[in-house]
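Hi everyone,

Forwarding the result from last night's run.
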Amino acid sequence: MNTSGLIRALYDLIYPSVCPVCDRVTSRFAADICPDCQRRLSFVGRSYCMTCGKPVDEADEYCADCKGRRHIYDEGRSLLVYDEYASASVYRFKYRGRREYAACYARLMHERLERKIRSWDPDVMIPVPVHKSRLKKRGYNQAALIADELAKRTGIPVDKGLILRKVATGAQKNLSAAERQKNLKKAFIATGNVVKYRTVLIVDDIYTTGATMDALAAVLKDAGVRKVYFVTLCIGRGI
């Protein structure tokens, strides 16, 4: 074993990987998820909405939400369906300090979504910002952790200071689509020279109604961005 391999083996021994599904130390060196746990995950398949990426029946091109309204963002894709396994994992990631999950999330997103991301040809990735009060309480922005890990694999730069969340919006998981839109109205502000970017890729953990993506896309396009896409770790089946 060469020196770098030895260092890696020692690192794995001291800081073993933790599976983001079962939250246990993985059974193999350098594995970031248990094989059985990965098989439990519900990856978004080949039948998805052509706008938001939500799973749909094979005969449908768009989900019920995107058939009924036009989004401000251009297109998006997600890795997983937001089911019991994904929701438990994301909860620990966001609220129990499991920052290390981000590396596994990003690896899987890169493996399954890279072709689509490359087709969009983004100039930059922007993680959905959190308000400074929430950042202080939580200690990190989970979307930024995923974006940083994706940047390592794609080479696409991350800009965390371009958009700020100036309004501390409340929890949105129990709100309707209309209530989410109202909650996010004027929540974000551009702080830098946005026009230098033609195409922006937003990164987040969960997509539900698209209210957050639309709010960000509106700010970005008002500032001169031409195309706004998104990738998220999870997506719900419906509103």
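The CA atoms of residues 21 and 88 lie 8 Å apart.

Cheers,
N.
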